Task: inverse folding
């Protein structure tokens, strides 16, 4: 997997522990607020907030909880989000990114959908150790 | 280095517990951290004594070679007293800094007694003061943590209350129901909403149900799944489900997510959904000629 961008999460704005669905809601609300405050269009706010909601929920449902960090990257004008868990990891990442694949009875669109809704998206997973998703929206 | 233990400080406490309490209370008044508007004098004295006794119990058995952790069982009493006290004070509007200063005010009476006790032995005095400072600082920090945790609980409770806004099923017209959804739709809430909805369909013999999501800001795959399941359940009961209030933003996001609404009818506004619903149950909305 590629190394994260060196300037990723350059200036951290907030961290949230992801434990329950409510934390995922808070995470996406923070993201929506930060984007709105920077004049990002309503459509793009909705898109990225939805992507964050998907990933944060994955952390809770599949990863057994984890951490959410949102930060700014002034140099490249991206709002960066990192969601990290210490769960089982994803054995086959290509399969998981495919629409329709689900292990928890969901719609199976979350991961691929989140990627399509983000301007930058990368996922790093180590089976048995956890998964980290880094995603960004252009400001 | 002179030997420092808790012996000196314990001796000081035992010699003049009452005096220390009074002086501590005095310092609290001087530093303006005892709020006479919030506590009666006797209440405050009883609390101070209780807290100081618990602190003392901790020092007696919870300090090992100058190391201590408030998580140890030796500090159980202090944690319990502090939890009670904090809960009460938070509800009375005391601020975190007032709480911390209240504890820190304990330094004054202890330092002055240490100075008298160890007059002439500067090295030991400094060592003792260092230990007492660490203890009281940790005590104050711990107090603050308890305080913040208590506040967070209040915030959490409020958050829950807000999320659990009741979701009424409204009868718009004969056999037409609407369910205006607001906020987020998590699994627990969606279960509650669905039960309520299906029950009302039966009671009202409804034929059309409009689920309005104008007030739902984010439709991710989980929310979509709950909505589609609700629609499927409504259909099983012989009624038709229309999902209304899908904004252009949500529509585009849903497409990107790859969510297929299948045969569920969707409308952009509750207005068009209502017109549709009335038509289905055999009503026509007509404008009367203007006079």
Result:
């Amino acid at each position: 997997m590629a190394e994260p961008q060196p300037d990723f999460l350059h200036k951290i704005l907030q961290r949230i522990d992801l434990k329950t669905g409510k934390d995922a809601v808070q995470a996406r609300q923070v993201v929506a607020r930060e984007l709105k405050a920077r004049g990002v269009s309503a459509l793009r706010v909705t898109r990225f907030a939805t992507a964050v909601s998907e990933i944060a929920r994955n952390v809770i449902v599949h990863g057994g909880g984890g951490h959410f960090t949102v930060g700014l990257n002034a140099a490249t004008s991206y709002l960066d989000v990192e969601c990290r868990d210490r769960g089982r990891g994803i054995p086959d990442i290509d399969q998981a990114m495919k629409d329709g694949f689900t292990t928890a009875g969901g719609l199976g669109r979350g991961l691929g959908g989140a990627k399509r809704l983000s301007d930058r998206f990368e996922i790093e997973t180590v089976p048995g150790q956890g998964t980290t998703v880094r995603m960004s929206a252009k400001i | 280095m002179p030997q420092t233990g808790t012996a000196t400080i314990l001796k000081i406490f035992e010699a003049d517990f009452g005096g220390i309490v009074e002086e501590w209370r005095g310092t609290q008044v001087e530093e303006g951290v005892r709020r006479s508007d919030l506590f009666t004098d006797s209440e405050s004295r009883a609390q101070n004594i209780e807290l100081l006794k618990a602190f003392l119990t901790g020092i007696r058995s919870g300090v090992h070679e100058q190391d201590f952790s408030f998580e140890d069982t030796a500090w159980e009493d202090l944690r319990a007293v502090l939890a009670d006290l904090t809960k009460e004070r938070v509800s009375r509007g005391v601020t975190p800094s007032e709480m911390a200063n209240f504890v820190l005010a304990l330094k004054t009476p202890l330092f002055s007694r240490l100075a008298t006790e160890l007059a002439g032995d500067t090295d030991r005095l400094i060592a003792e003061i260092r230990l007492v400072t660490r203890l009281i600082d940790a005590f104050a920090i711990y107090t603050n943590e308890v305080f913040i945790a208590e506040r967070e609980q209040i915030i959490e409770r409020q958050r829950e209350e807000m999320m659990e806004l009741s979701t009424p099923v409204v009868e718009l017209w004969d056999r037409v129901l609407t369910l205006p959804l607001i906020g987020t739709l998590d699994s627990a809430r969606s279960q509650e909403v669905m039960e309520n909805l299906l029950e009302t369909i039966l009671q009202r013999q409804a034929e059309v149900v409009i689920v309005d999501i104008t007030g739902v800001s984010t439709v991710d795959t989980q929310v979509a799944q709950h909505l589609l399941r609700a629609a499927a359940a409504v259909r099983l009961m012989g009624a038709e489900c229309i999902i209304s209030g899908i904004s252009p933003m949500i529509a585009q996001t849903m497409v990107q997510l790859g969510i297929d609404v299948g045969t569920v009818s969707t409308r952009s506004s509750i207005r068009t959904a209502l017109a549709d619903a009335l038509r289905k149950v055999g009503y026509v909305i007509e404008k009367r000629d203007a006079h």
